[in-house]
Design brief:
Blueprint lengths: L1 E6 L2 E6 L3 E5 L8 E4 L2 E6 L4 E4 L6 E12 L3 E7 L4 E7 L2 E13 L4 E6 L6 E6 L2 E6 L2
Antiparallel strand pairs: 1-2, 1-5, 3-10, 4-7, 5-6, 7-10, 8-9, 11-12, 12-13
Length: 137
Amino acid sequence: MFAVIKTGGKQYLIQKGDILKIEKIEGDPKKMIIFKEVLLTFDLTAKKVEVGQPYLKINVTAEIISQERGKKITIIKYKPKTRYHKKRGHRQFYTEVKIIKIGEEEKVKLRVVKVTTASNPVKKVVKKSKIIKKKEK
């Protein structure tokens, strides 16, 4: 199974076991992270393609291998006849990630909270940030 994920303003084509160098994200090595912005999944054996509008309700689980810096890039600015020249260097931070699992569906957790008042008891089902009121019998 392959997937296209979006992270750090870029899109990556991945499959299970791939090692990626992505823009720096917070986290310690050996920790698991979840990418929720999955744009597309496809399976060559089952000939099945799913396209999100804009994202699918599938998560990609990955493990952080290391937090490192890239090779040094030298920037030179020069203007002739004016004695102007500048030299600067830059090293970009990146995170190395190994893909563990593709296709874990997002599960919504429900909490039932009882709220009792003097006149009528009400049960609230809390689903993410929405509150749905139900009258108790």
